[in-house]
Amino acid sequence: MKYFVTGEKNVGKTYLVEKIKPLVNVKGFETRFEPEGQRLFLHFLNGLSFMIGERNSGRLRIIEEGFKEAARELGTMEIPESCFLIMDEIGFLEEESPEFQQAVVAAIRRSKNCICILRKGNYSFIDHLKRSMGIRSVELTVDNRDEILNGLLREVEKERTDTSSPGGDEGI
After folding, report:
1. Is the pLDDT of residue 159 over 90?
2. 20 to 30 Å CA-CA from 66: which of 32, 94, 122, 155?
3. How many other C-beta atoms lie within 10 A of the C-beta of residue 161?
4. 28 has which bridge partners?
């Protein structure tokens, strides 16, 4: 199960991820601004964080070293079949980091299950992901968000029941 989810700002994309995370083992990252809204961090779900953007005169600029460190972390991350890869969110700053782009593509390819939140807009890297990865893409709206959430929850439950327990049932 692999999905790209996009939609307008504040429509509930991260809400979907937050509803799914407690139900499965997760790996991946979330991007969040600090409370003051000046610095953007990429927080890995294992606890590591890297500053990837900073506002300068109102414009968000890339912090290349943060993206390089994040690319190394994502590139070496083990993603067992039993885990869901969560990437919340891929946006416009990634356009300026080829290393991070490569790490994203490689992580998606080596994951069995993935939910990747994509910023809505015209971005070459996001367009490349949508065209080349063969992953279902869903546009979340206020009108369809409950339906999409319920569909994803059904898919997650199906995936959980299809995954055999470690060690199987043999010998019982």
Report:
1. no
2. 122
3. 8
4. 86
